Amino acid sequence: ILEVLANLTAKEDIRRLIDETIATFGRLDVLVNNAGIIAVTDIEDSDVDVKVDQIMDTNVRSVVLLCHLSVPYLLKTKGNIVSVSSVASTKPSCVDMITKCLAIDLGVKGVRVNAVNPAVIKTNIFDAGFGIDLQTTQQLIYKDCEQTYPLKRPGDPEEVAEAIAFLASDKASFITGATLEVDGGSMWTSRGANPNATSNNNQ
């Protein structure tokens, strides 16, 4: 196991991450893009541009740079890329389209590219993104999942990991350009996991 502390908004840190991986293992078989932040804004916020830059740098630009610097090694191993996207907000629109475009470009060279789209998963991301403590998260967001998700609960990190492992494995050897929802069916419900939502209109 190799642990590398890196700022994924900095190209040189990403380059160092890849270089240390190759120096340690000698090859690269799978790239999993899993960096992400949550930032809430709207078009009337005075600092909307700052928040958008933060979101795009961390959630999208890092994916592009990691793929760019990893592809030369993935071409050698006929490896693959799995990006962790989402079922909501700006990030999935960008990451899902990057996934599909790269799948077309790299498929002819033997490299598969896919993504998983989780809904609410029981991690600390809400605490990190909104300053919501665990108890409040459970009371508001998790409870809303129990009420609105067809499977009546939020997801577990292990369930997302299993989906990533599947897409990265030979069992998915004929799958590329796919976006796999790991969302308890929330995409097909009216509100998803928004604790402040009151409308039952379809998304």
Structural summary, described in words:
This protein is an alpha/beta fold. It has a single domain (11-188), classed as NAD(P)-binding Rossmann-like Domain (Rossmann fold, 3-Layer(aba) Sandwich). It has 6 helices and 4 strands, in the order H-E-H-E-H-E-H-H-H-E. The chain has helices spanning 11-25, 48-77, 90-107, 125-130, 134-148, 157-168, and strands at residues 30-33, 80-84, 112-118, 179-182. It has a 4-stranded parallel β-sheet with strand order 1-2-3-4, with helices on both faces. Helix 3 links the parallel strand 2 and strand 3 (112-118). Helix 1 packs parallel to helix 2 (48-77) and helix 2 (48-77) packs parallel to helix 3 (90-107). The longest helix is centred in the first third of the chain and has 30 residues, at 48-77. The radius of gyration is 18 Å and the shape is globular. The model is unreliable at 192-203 (pLDDT under 50). Pfam families: adh_short_C2.
User: CATH superfamily, please?
Assistant: NAD(P)-binding Rossmann-like Domain
For the largest beta-sheet, the strand count, sense and barrel status come to: 4 strands, parallel
Count of separate structural domains: 1
CATH class descriptor name:
Alpha Beta
Could you give the distance between the termini?
42 Å
Pfam families: adh_short_C2
InterPro entries: NAD(P)-bd_dom_sf, SDR_fam
